[in-house]
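During the second half of the funding period, the structural biology subgroup turned its attention to how the target accommodates small molecules. The most pressing case was alpha-D-glucopyranuronic acid, which had performed well in the primary screen but for which no bound structure existed. We therefore specified the complex as follows and requested a full 3D prediction, including the ligand pose.
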Amino acid sequence: MKIRNAIRAGGLALAVIGTVAYSSGALAAEAKCKKPTTFKLAFNQTEAHPQFKAAVEFGKRLLAATSGCYTIKGYANETLGTQAAVVNNVADGSVDMAYLGGPVMESMNPDAIVFNLPYVFDSYEAQQAVFTDDSIVGEFKDSMIANKHIKVLALVYAGTRNVYTKKAVRNPADLTGQKIRVQQSDSQVKMIQLMGAVATPMGQGDVYSALQTGTLDGAENNETVFDALKHDEVAKFYNYTQHLMIPDYLIMNSDVLAKMPEADRKALLGLVPEIAKLANEGFYKEYIPVSIEAAKKKGATFVTDVDVAAFKAAVTPLVKESINNPVRQKLYDAVQAANAKFAKK
Ligand code: GCU
């Protein structure tokens, strides 16, 4: 009992210290800025998602680091529009920041396709090694500033994507005639066609009702979307095709970033690695296992005996035809080197 009380008291003390530190930052802030500039961050999933939680944390830490001058407010559940719309809004500055799925980034820089190809990354470790190394991705992160006014702050983990449907899928023939939702890009359309299905690109917010009405037979995504967006209620077979491990991007309008006073801009950029880490680890270590358990409880079946080699062979032409310029080749080679480095012996 005593121990519990001591822990409680300790917790209280910490909370008080936290409040004092926070409010003294806010007081200093009041001296510097009358009220904070709030950046709008668009998000197409729920508030429970680790990327959203990391964005909330980003806002808090930015407020403290800029003495109350800047903060961030996340808008979840596609309230600011589909990602295909939002990326244009970030480009024109009407939305300041967003998390964006890899395929949608292809509309801004087609070379983004390299990271969106099926079976391109072998492991989380290899992917992280590439995403956090600016000698590999630095140029790409700045490649859209001049023409599109988009700065990539970070490439973050977005799970492994698998096909889910109303019946079990073990090989490409099982997908014949099935209408499968993909993200809005040519690479994703070609990929799912090569995997044997009929491609239906659409924004994420429409998928649930399309599955319900039969406009779709299935979709492909990570376990968290399968569960959190309740797709597991209407397409109960989650089949481990393991076809994609692609990034989400944390992006910002580059003019908005450039207009910040230098110290505040540096503070924002300095926070990015820790925010990306929060998003990645919350997703990889916690959110996925929780989602799998929740989906199982709702009666979903996870199909593990999938002929991954057959799917991989089917999509090889897309990989080959997409690595068709020196920029892509360099990125692709770096990915392969990281795969080799982290290969399980
Ligand atoms: C995942 C991914 C999102 C993407 C979504 C989709 O949730 O993290 O960035 O938009 O899938 O399939 O649309």
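Two results from this model are relevant to the next phase. Residues 2 and 8 are 10 Å apart (CA to CA). Residues 1-31 have pLDDT under 50 and may be disordered.
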